[in-house]
Design brief:
Layout lengths: L3 H11 L4 E6 L3 E7 L8 H18 L4 E7 L1 H7 L2
Parallel strand pairs: 2-3
Antiparallel strand pairs: 1-2
Family: Belongs to the BolA/IbaG family.
InterPro entries: BolA, BolA-like_sf, BolA/IbaG_stress_morph_reg
Protein name: Transcriptional regulator BolA
């Protein structure tokens, strides 16, 4: 079973993040990922990038489900007011 901190570390190692939050119960996780690497990419392309970083963990069954919100730093700043 994975812990949120492990998922967060894997994402951070593969994507340069300005902000990253991961929560979960060991099977299902939720993530907020803010990265300048998402600039110019649509939602699907952003999620594909994150899934690519986590692919081996999904394939092994170690990681079951991840719902994610992906934003550029500008989008994140705008949603925070």
């Amino acid at each position: 079973m994975m812990h949120p901190e492990q998922v967060q570390a894997i994402i951070a190692a593969g994507i340069s993040c300005q902000h990253l939050e991961v929560a979960g119960d060991g099977q299902h996780f939720e993530a907020l990922i803010v990265s300048s690497e998402f600039v110019g990419k649509n939602r699907v392309q952003r999620q594909q990038a994150v899934n690519g970083v986590l692919r081996q963990h999904f394939d092994s069954g170690e990681l079951h489900a991840l719902s994610m919100k992906t934003q550029t730093p500008e989008e994140w700043s705008a949603t925070r007011g």
